Amino acid sequence: MQIFLDTANVDNISQAAELGIISGVTTNPTLLSKESTADYETVTKKICSIVSGPVSVEVLTEDAKSMIKEARLKASWAPNVNIKIPITADGLRATSALSQEGIKVNMTLCFSANQALLGAMAGATYVSIFVGRLDDAGQDGMQVVQDVMDILDNYPELDTQVIAASIRNPLHVTQAALIGAHIATVPYNVLMQMIQHPFTDVGIKRFLADWKSVSKK
Ligand code: E4P
Description:
By secondary structure, the protein is an alpha/beta fold. It starts with a strand and ends with a helix. The protein has helices at 10-19, 29-33, 40-50, 64-75, 89-101, 113-121, 131-136, 141-154, 170-179, 188-195, 198-215; strands at residues 2-6, 22-26, 55-58, 81-86, 105-110, 126-130, 161-165, 183-186. Bound molecules: erythose-4-phosphate. Erythose-4-phosphate binds next to strand 6 and helix 7.
């Protein structure tokens, strides 16, 4: 499994990159709008200078022709950029064309197994299942990830990686890993939560206290 960071915050990306466990980054227009420099090109180039793995950058257009044009431009920003395209009929048209040109697509906003299946058939390198938003709506988001993994197992010719996205908590990451999802893209705060456990803190304090009590003797 790989962990991507789901943010456009350059400081958080730098801090996470130092941990040596981040394989890529996913951004979206909402994440970018939270940053002071909401200039997609500048932020993307900065992120790509920090992370050598795949960096997802979303299109802001809706018809296939415009998406293709925008994707070509954004893919030229750095060699590791892939293009996030929403699963719509136009999105599928654009994905089919772009994948034939060798531009990698992350088919985003997938909420059903069929949407992800169509994305894979169109040649998307990644399909992103929005687990948290499905859970928020009272559905079982992780079941969709499981279903897509099962479907892809049936059809090895579909060479697509499943991203568990819209991750809300560390349990989502554990569940995605148990299912065998290729990637979980996690917000920075969830990554920090994954590192921590109260017993670890207690254990460190006790080890140090015990050592100090002996070394004073
Ligand atoms: C995926 O790539 C998206 O950026 C992200 O996971 C969206 O999740 P949200 O529901 O937290 O906005």
